[in-house]
Amino acid sequence: MAASANMARNTEPETVEDPDGRARFDELIAADQRVEPTDWMPEAYRKTLVRQVSQHAHSEIIGMQPEGNWITRAPSLKRKAILMAKVQDEAGHGLYLYSAAQTLGTPRDKMTEDLISGKAKYSSIFNYPTPTWADMGSIGWLVDGAAICNQVPLCRASYGPYARAMVRICKEESFHQRQGFEILLHLSRGTKEQHAMAQESVNRWYAPALMMFGPPDADSPNSAQSMAWNIKRFSNDELRQRFVDMIVPQSEVLGLTLPDPDIKWNEERGHYDFGELDWDEFYEVLKGRGPANAIRLERRRTAHEEGAWVREAAAAYAERRRQQSEKAQAA
Amino acid sequence: MSAPGSNDTEPWPLWEVFVRSSRGLSHLHAGSLHAPDAEMAVRNARDLYTRRNEGVSVWVVRSSDITASDPDAKGAFFESPRGKEYRHASYYTESEGVKHL
Ligand SMILES: [Fe+2]
Ligand SMILES: [Fe+2]
């Protein structure tokens, strides 16, 4: 993303062990400093980052679909404009993150291919459908809200380009969450039907949003290594708890309930207790058997293929201009 | 010295984007992007890096046109200021308490 990010690599990923490089890397991590693209890094660190950053980028890009789907039907010109701005931001987030992943030596085309071939993963939250307008509210409030919870600590991730991309993204995300909250607030205070629509939507999004933090710590074998590398700063369960603690009071302001009878303030822990989540469903959706997996990928593939002529034309135009200016210089 | 950003595996060249946030300030590096030519790079930079009034002017520079210091020599290359504290005002303590100095 930022300068040094791209003062980057023009070679294939480094695989040779380099004792000095490793010592320097260990020093940087121990001192909680940033690793930059030109630094030596262990292959496993690079791989972990490529996977995480590209999945993150894919999620931003696929994440445009459930909302883009509502732009034409948003209930007012103002709401259309807001939704367009949000969807455009998500495109930007995807691009910042692809840039960060590219500094690790993975070409953009490769990442796109992995996404549209179904090889790469993205956040399973975007495989749920958005049948009502209230879903635009729930996505902003709960999905962007959970994303923010996840992303704020990533602003201190040890890989410089990733951390810098996250800083930029986090600045933009707060508008996303607030506009969603407002959609729900207006519906909740509206007619009986509107209130019911808001409640029904929150009921559907609550559990999937909580699952965005990933499986429980006990079932998350890679977390410890990511934390040792200062990529991850808090465990899945810690972040999930933090999120629940935030949204329970917020739901009260909204005048809506959360669909979990076990939510209860626990004085002793100083946190809200909440019920078990259905992780079988999570893994089903992750494996591509969610309600909208096929539609999301198909749309992404079509968009990519239908955009091919634009990319080719732009490249041909740039090449012709280059040749013309060379000729002019020679003359 | 490595030419940064040049990468044969990317179809479009990489550009570094510099944004001036308001008149009178320097252009600061904002990030990077891929684009087929300078004109497209400027347009894309506007969409990607100035959606919220972040700037009044944008520069784009092909990353391959930037010459960077050699990362492997970073120790030696930046060594010379070390031990030269007298280049900082804080080195001179005897004027402590004297006004307007
Ligand atoms: Fe985003
Ligand atoms: Fe967002």
Describe it.
The complex is a heterodimer of chains A (331) and B (101). Chain A is mostly helical and 331 residues long. Chain A contains 14 helices and 2 strands. In chain A, a hairpin with a 4-residue loop joins strand 1 (264-266) and strand 2 (271-273). In chain A, helix 3 (43-62) runs antiparallel to helix 5 (77-102), helix 7 (134-154) runs antiparallel to helix 8 and helix 8 packs antiparallel against helix 9. Chain A starts with a helix and ends with a helix. Residues 1-12 of chain A have low confidence and may be disordered. With 101 residues, chain B is an alpha+beta fold. In chain B, strands 2-1-3 form a 3-stranded antiparallel beta sheet, covered by helices on one side. In chain B, a hairpin with a 6-residue loop joins strand 1 and strand 2. Mean pLDDT of chain B is 84; it is low at 1-6. At the A-B interface, helix 1, helix 5, helix 6, helix 8 and helix 14 of A face strand 2 and helix 1 of B. One fe (ii) ion binds at residues 60, 90, 93, 169, 173 of chain A.
Provide key terms for this protein.
heterodimer; A: 331 residues; mainly alpha; two-stranded antiparallel sheet; 2 strands; 66% helix; B: 101 residues; alpha+beta; Ubiquitin-like (UB roll); 3-stranded antiparallel β-sheet; flat; binds fe (ii) ion
Give a short summary of the structure.
Chain A is mostly helical and 331 residues long. Chain A has helices at 3-6, 19-30, 43-62, 64-68, 77-102, 108-116, 134-154, 160-188, 192-211, 223-228, 236-254, 279-289, 293-306, 308-330, and strands at residues 264-266, 271-273.
Low-confidence stretches of chain B: 1-6
Helices and strands of chain A, in N-to-C order? HHHHHHHHHHHEEHHH
How far apart the termini of chain B lie comes to: 43 Å
Radius of gyration of chain B: 20 Å
SSE-based structural type of chain A: mainly alpha
Oligomer, anyone? heterodimer
Rg over CA atoms of chain A: 22 Å
CATH homologous superfamily assignment of the domain at 11-66 in chain B: Phenylacetic acid degradation B
CATH class bucket of the domain at 11-66 in chain B = Alpha Beta
Shape of chain B: flat
Q: Would you identify the CATH architecture of the domain at 11-66 in chain B?
A: Roll
